[in-house]
């Protein structure tokens, strides 16, 4: 099963007829099942073993007719064996699609076969997405408060709030295993603001003498700004626990700030409210 994604496919359609790529595929995969699954995606079900060479011929065919426009073709391939793997058609398509998705944003590799490494990755993603709602409602995400110590004084002047997932069956799961998945699904904001609330609770439970001049830092994902009004949500939680705005240090990936005017505007709004970024 091959999932074929053609970059800038609209340009092909504008230059030729939409049947153009269909014909190229039919020429190179005669007698095989070919389905247009989306506007720029094709599925090919074939018993041929030279599928990689035939996919490259489709690429060459497009390039021959559009010599001044480089249109990149990427393909994810799932190889089904009768003695292993799934016979479910939907699962085969999903695995070919997953292999194809790993080639996004690159123009070096054009074909990726679904292998054991990719299988483990998709299993991890499935686990995170299927268990996240239950885990956050049950309180399985635990805040770890990492002390920040002043170099001159040697005293704790603050702490960083770090998320750890304590799964009943798998034990402690590090953020590297679940944050990329949550960012991809745009669910990271739920965990980020959950950690913010835990940090605010910790400060609010301290007596005033102990928490004086104490701050805490926490991370915001770039996808948070796509999903919600970050400054407004931040202020609601901080006001709820009566935490001074200068007691927060908000950490955001530098590349996200540079690339997104929307994030830049949100940062300016938070700085006006007295938060440190």
How would you sum up this structure, described in words?
The chain is α/β, with parallel strands linked by helices and 277 residues long. It folds into two domains: 2-114, Reverse transcriptase/Diguanylate cyclase domain (Alpha-Beta Plaits), CATH 3.30.70; 130-272, TIM Barrel (Alpha-Beta Barrel), CATH 3.20.20. The chain has twelve helices and ten strands. It has a five-stranded mixed beta sheet with strand order 2-3-1-4-5. α4 links the parallel β4 and β5. α2 (19-28) packs antiparallel against α3 and α7 runs parallel beside α10. The radius of gyration is 25 Å and the shape is elongated. The two termini are 48 Å apart. 25% of the residues are buried. The model has no long low-confidence stretch (mean pLDDT 84).
């Amino acid at each position: 099963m091959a999932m074929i994604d053609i970059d800038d496919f609209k340009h092909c359609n504008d230059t030729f007829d939409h049947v153009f790529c269909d014909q190229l595929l039919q020429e190179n995969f005669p007698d095989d099942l070919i389905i247009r699954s989306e506007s720029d995606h094709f599925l090919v079900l074939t018993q041929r073993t030279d599928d990689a060479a035939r996919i490259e011929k489709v690429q060459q065919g497009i390039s021959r007719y559009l010599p001044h426009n480089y249109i990149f073709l990427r393909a994810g391939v799932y190889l089904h064996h009768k003695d292993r793997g799934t016979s479910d058609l939907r699962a085969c398509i999903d695995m070919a699609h997953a292999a194809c998705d790993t080639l996004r944003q690159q123009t070096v590799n054009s074909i990726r076969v679904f292998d054991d490494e990719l299988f483990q990755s998709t299993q991890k993603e499935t686990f995170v997405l299927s268990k996240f709602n239950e885990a956050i409602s049950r309180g399985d995400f635990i805040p770890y408060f990492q002390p920040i110590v002043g170099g001159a004084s040697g005293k704790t002047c603050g702490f960083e709030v770090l998320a750890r997932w304590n799964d009943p069956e798998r034990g402690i799961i590090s953020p590297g295993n679940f944050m990329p998945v949550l960012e991809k699904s745009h669910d990271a904001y739920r965990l980020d603001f959950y950690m913010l609330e835990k940090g605010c609770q910790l400060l609010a439970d301290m007596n005033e003498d102990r928490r004086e001049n104490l701050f805490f830092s926490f991370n915001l994902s770039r996808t948070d700004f796509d999903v919600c009004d970050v400054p407004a949500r931040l202020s609601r939680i901080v006001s709820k626990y009566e935490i001074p705005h200068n007691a927060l240090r908000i950490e955001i990936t530098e590349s996200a700030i540079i690339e997104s005017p929307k994030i830049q505007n949100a940062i300016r709004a938070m700085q006006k409210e007295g938060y440190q970024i």
